[in-house]
């Protein structure tokens, strides 16, 4: 058991008395203060006399065992804070405390308004000069629609609980989307760390972290779309029209090329009589080269 000294007890009692007794200062007393030091008005409001001769107000309170100090402005200067104004500001802070709010935390959030998850994510996307428009839209949709609860959070405060709250609903219903969203959140947080906007481990990291919290996507139960029986393929193809998308479907079905390869081919021609795909070698080019299959 710790035994406090008489001096410690006296200091504690004096501090409590200063907090409990309000309105101890007057304008006359403030103007007469010449010695550097701290002067209590009471109930957490203090005036500090600096060695240089200036005077400033601050408010002290304790939250979760931590002593907090909030500056309220100077007694003189360009925007002077009079005794009456300082007391009004102190009253507002006391009201916040009575409501269970933390003035220091809320002030930090206001100051970091340009460092919210959304702002940093926007900067991350803007820095990707080589991204195409559709890629940017996909990132914005995943980050700002699926991770909406992170939007106004200070980037430095994003933690594992917040990440889990975003991902768990997706993990249970749309695991593939959940994986993409997680990866994008991780990238934004890595970017913020590189820019010295946050410190510590990345709470969106999968390996060694979220893999122990969320079920692997491969283990999430779900159902695939029903497959078309091969017996019905001729009837299906015969029923397709001549629109661009329908012609592309024909190309994919009749050549067995991957859907991505078919979508990136530059030219798909259909002979009006035979309804067969008509092309010669080298006519179909995608980003990786010539389409793998040909059909005539």
What does this structure look like?
Residues 266-296 have low confidence and may be disordered. The chain folds into three domains: 6-101, Double Stranded RNA Binding Domain, CATH 3.30.160.390; 115-219, Tyrosine recombinase, N-terminal domain (DNA polymerase, domain 1), CATH 1.10.150; 230-290, no CATH class. It has a four-stranded antiparallel beta sheet with strand order 1-2-3-4. A two-stranded antiparallel ribbon has the order 5-6. The termini are far apart. It is α+β, with helices and mostly antiparallel strands and 296 residues long. 43% of the residues lie in helices and 11% in strands. A hairpin with a 2-residue loop joins strand 5 and strand 6. The longest helix is centred in the middle third of the chain and has 20 residues, at 175-194.
Number of helices: 11
How far from one another are the termini?
Answer: 92 Å
Mean pLDDT: 79
Structural class category: alpha+beta
Order of SSEs: HHEEEEHHHHHHHHHEE
Query: Class of the largest domain in CATH?
Result: Mainly Alpha
- Overall geometry comes to elongated
Largest beta-sheet characterization = 4 strands, antiparallel
Residue runs with pLDDT of under 50 for 5 or more positions: 266-296
Percent in strands = 5-15%
- How many domains would you count in the coordinates? 3
Determine Rg (CA atoms, Å).
33 Å
């Amino acid at each position: 058991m710790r035994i406090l000294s008489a001096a410690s007890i006296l200091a504690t009692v004096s501090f409590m008395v200063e907090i409990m007794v309000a309105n101890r200062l007057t304008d006359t007393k403030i103007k007469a203060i010449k010695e550097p030091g701290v002067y209590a008005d009471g109930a957490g409001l203090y005036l500090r006399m600096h060695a240089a001769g200036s005077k400033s107000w601050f408010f002290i309170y304790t939250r979760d065992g931590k002593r907090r100090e909030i500056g309220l402005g100077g007694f003189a200067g360009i925007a002077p804070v009079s005794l009456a104004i300082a007391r009004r500001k102190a009253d507002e802070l006391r009201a916040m405390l009575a409501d269970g709010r933390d003035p220091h935390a809320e002030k930090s959030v206001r100051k970091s308004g340009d460092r919210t998850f959304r702002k940093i994510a926007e900067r991350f996307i803007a820095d990707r000069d080589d991204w195409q428009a559709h890629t940017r839209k996909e990132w914005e949709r995943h980050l700002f629609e699926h991770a909406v609860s992170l939007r106004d959070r200070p980037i430095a405060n994003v933690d594992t609980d917040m990440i889990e709250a975003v991902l768990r609903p997706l993990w249970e219903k749309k695991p593939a989307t959940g994986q993409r969203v997680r990866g994008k959140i991780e990238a934004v947080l890595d970017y913020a760390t590189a820019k010295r906007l946050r410190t510590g481990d990345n709470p969106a990291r999968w390996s060694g972290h979220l893999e122990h919290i969320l079920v692997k996507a491969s283990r999430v139960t779900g159902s695939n779309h029903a497959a078309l029986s091969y017996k019905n393929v001729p009837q299906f193809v015969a029923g397709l029209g001549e629109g661009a998308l329908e012609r592309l479907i024909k190309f994919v079905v009749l050549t067995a090329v991957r859907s991505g390869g078919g979508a990136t081919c530059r030219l798909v021609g259909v002979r009006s009589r035979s309804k067969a795909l008509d092309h010669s070698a080298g006519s179909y080019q995608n980003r990786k080269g010539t389409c793998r299959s040909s059909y005539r």
